[in-house]
Amino acid sequence: MAETSPRTTSKRARKAPKKMSDAADEDDLDAVEEVELQEAIAASQAEAPPPEAPKPKPEIEEGKFYKRELPEQCVAFASREGRAFFESALKSGGLEGFFDLIAQFHTQNEPAYCGLATLTMALNSLKVDPGRPWKGVWRWYDESLLDCCKDLREVQLDGISLEEFVCLAVCNGLSCDTRRAHVAGEDVEMAPTTTSVKTCANVSDGCHASITSGSLDDLRAAVKHACGRSDVVLAASYSRKTLGQTGDGHFSPVGGYDASTDQVLLLDVAQ
């Protein structure tokens, strides 16, 4: 036993330095890798260009707007209340023409192009072929193609009237049933009268149309009729002032009607 114990102890003693050496080698390797990593980071930072100073925000001109908040009497389409109206209108059949219209939604390219943008949406949603190219080989309605009844340079300045809107619609193949609303504040309702309009210099008798006056009941009946079909578009010509919005005379398509709340969905073409 006296001879065996030293040999056993000697074997264990020889193994221990090897383990310590392995651990030391691993520590040295980790240290080298850490140094190399720090050198690589320092080199990349030296090569990188200095960060640019933040650009100053442009000064906002007084009287210029990015967006305007909707007035209280209007409900935003994407709001919770607006979605509830939409769901109710969908269930009651008041959105039959909505999907064709929204697929052709178009915002006006000029501040006074609301009438042209509204008519562009109507023509494209009703699948009217303009018979001439928009761009390249494509025949498609754009505001630039609605130039037969009034010079577009004048439209940019003054927009279009209801009569001119009808003129353009008829010139481009649509049939129109046009009603001018009863004037607010009058004691006696206007008697229906027919007005002939021929403002188009390019098409002989192409713009002859009738505009009659109508009551609130007539308006409600027209809304229900148009929103219950996919082959009719109701274009509204109204005053934005009455809704508490900026500006005055405006055109937009009516996209839907919720009979339970007597609310209409205006697909506003204003930016």
Report what the structure shows:
This protein is an alpha+beta fold and 271 residues long. 38% of the residues lie in helices and 10% in strands. The protein contains 7 helices and 5 strands; from the N terminus they run ααααααββαβββ. It has helices at 4-47, 80-91, 98-103, 114-125, 152-158, 162-171, 216-227; strands spanning 178-181, 211-214, 234-239, 249-258, 263-266. A 3-stranded antiparallel sheet has the order 3-4-5, with helices on both faces. It has a two-stranded parallel sheet with strand order 1-2. A hairpin with a 4-residue loop joins β4 and β5 (263-266).
Structural class: alpha+beta
Radius of gyration: 37 Å
Main beta sheet, described?
3 strands, antiparallel
> How much helical structure, as a percent, in the residues?
25-40%
Low-confidence stretches: 1-17, 186-198
Shape: elongated
Number of helices: 7
Can you give the mean pLDDT?
A: 81
Strand arrangement within the widest β-sheet reads 3-4-5
Fraction in beta strands = 5-15%
Name the assembly state. single chain
Could you give the count of β-strands? 5
Can you describe this structure in just a few lines?
The protein has 271 residues and is α+β, with helices and mostly antiparallel strands. The chain has helices at residues 4-47, 80-91, 98-103, 114-125, 152-158, 162-171, 216-227, and strands spanning 178-181, 211-214, 234-239, 249-258, 263-266.
How is the topology of this model organized?
Elements: H1 4-47, H2 80-91, H3 98-103, H4 114-125, H5 152-158, H6 162-171, E1 178-181, E2 211-214, H7 216-227, E3 234-239, E4 249-258, E5 263-266
Parallel strand pairs: 1-2
Antiparallel strand pairs: 3-4, 4-5
